[in-house]
Amino acid sequence: MDMLEKFEKLTTEVKIILGMIVALFIVSFILIFNGNNTSNKKNGKETVNLTVDEGMTKETETQTEPVTEEGNQKEASLNAKNDAEKLMKDMSLHDKICQMFIVSPEELTGVSLATLAGDTTKASIEKNPVGGIIYFEKNIKKRDQIKEMIEGTKKYAKDYNNVPLFACVDEEGGKVSRVASALDDVTKLDSMYSYKDKGTDTARSNAKTIAESIAELGFNVDFAPVADTFSNSSNDVIGDRCYSDSYEECASLVSNAVKGFADGDVLCTLKHFPGHGDASGDSHDGAAKSDKTLEELKKEDLVPFVSGIKAGAPFVMVGHITMSDVDNEIASLSKTIITDTLKGELGYQGIVITDALDMGAITSSYKSDEAAIKAIEAGADMLLSPASLEDAVKGVEAAVKDGKISEDRINESVLKILTLKCDSLDQ
Predict the structure, then answer these.
(1) Strand pairing report for 101-103 and 383-384
(2) Contacts of 344 (CB under 8 A, 6+ apart)
């Protein structure tokens, strides 16, 4: 019996020892595995060993760059917002309001034709430090000339308040090609509609080609791509400026165009929200009209805009389209279209800009100050080409001082504008 007890005791000790050995083996295995795993992190990629059915070991790479890149983007955006807040803190109400306008060099300076940036431009920028300048074919005579003009204007803006300037142009391809029509050494693409069967890669490469050609001259914003759908064959105002006559195909092509502009380092603009393709009339002469309901728009015309927004479009331009079955208001002045639909339901957080406010659709019914105030009340962040910059700025400034528009509303848009500038433009 004593021998049996000794045996049982010895067996327990052996069990304890064996347990300790097993535990030690497990700890060693974990340490070795972690060491191998750490050594497998190379060039920003983490390699993970996976066992395949045949008993072979297959090494697959799990990309870590997107996570790092996303983190970097968030940090950069946060830094840009902080920089923007510092800039805005030092700005007067007048200067903040001016940041909300993009005008032609002629409207800024008062000259009949501007082809250079000199003392008049400098004085005009200091008087009304606008957020951007839009250039047309008439402003572009030679490559060196337009480069110097844009560079000089940017410098005057930066010297005044340290805020970068949006240098803008309409360069869609086809009949709306301000730069390619003025300069023989710039590739002029055909209308985007002519490429509709060429696929998404072509849409992206075409946009990159346009972006690179205008970026070389100093432009940093393009009022393209057209996100309207050519759904009304009798609509020759937009027509072949569209990418397709199919909402779904247009959405796919437009989203890739947005990526192409980003590839070429140019900020792009989806236009003309909520969709000009099926509207009747020319907003250059009077308001274009659409009788679509909001639900119909969501299923049809808005599809390419949603796709372009998801692709990262920094601007959306709202057209002068009267939506008779929505609120019977011109879209560019409509709170339902801009604030409730674009910013609200679609969740767009980029810059909302009006189409040119000197077009007949606006000037036939509103003075410059009235149109500017209505656009801001509707939710627009930037106002393009008022008939009179002076009247528009004074009108908005008076509206703020009278309490019709809150300064917080101005700050909301200006912070968005400055943040994009700090994040995307050369400082």
Answers:
(1) parallel
(2) none
What is the per-residue pLDDT for 201? Answer: 98
**Closest to 334 in 3D by CA, of 297, 365, 377:** 377
Backbone angles phi, psi at 172, to 5 degrees: -95, -25
Separation of alpha carbons 257 and 312, rounded Å: 11
pTM: 0.82
Residue 146: which H helix or E strand, with range?
helix 143-161
- What is the percent of the chain with per-residue pLDDT over 70, rounded to a whole number? 80
pLDDT value of residue 36? 43
Q: Which of 214, 191, 304 is nearest to 258 (CA)?
A: 304
Q: What is the C-alpha radius of gyration for the chain, rounded to an integer number of angstroms?
A: 29
Sign of CA dihedral 382, 388, 171, 76: negative
Q: 337 near 273, Cβ under 8 Å?
A: yes
Section 196-203 average pLDDT: 98
Helical ranges in 162-199 per DSSP H: 178-182
CA angle, 193 as apex, 187 and 198 as ends, to 5°? 80
Please, what sign has the CA dihedral across residues 389, 390, 393, 396?
negative
**Rounded distance between C-alpha atoms, residue 248 and residue 250, angstroms:** 5
- At 48 the three-state DSSP class reads strand
* Whether the predicted pLDDT of 18 surpasses 90: no
Summarised one tens digit per residue, pLDDT across range 389-412 is: 999 999 999 999 999 999 999 999
pLDDT at 124: 99
Counting Cα atoms < 13 Å in the Cβ hemisphere of 400 gives: 18
Q: C-alpha 131: how far from its chain's center?
A: 15
The answer to whether residues 370 and 57 touch, using CB atoms and an 8 Å cutoff, is no
Could you give all domains of the chain from N- to C-terminal order, each with its CATH number? 2-63 (no CATH), 93-424 (3.20.20.300)
The residues pairing with 63 across neighbouring beta strands, listed in sequence order, are: 45
The residue ranges of DSSP E strands in 89-175, in sequence order, are 101-103, 132-135, 166-169, 171-173
CB 100 within 8 A of CB 376: yes
In which element (H, E) is residue 383 found? strand 383-384
Could you report the per-residue pLDDT of 118-171, keeping only the tens digit for each? 999 999 999 999 999 999 999 999 999 999 999 999 999 999 999 999 999 999
- Say yes or no to pLDDT of 356 above 70: yes
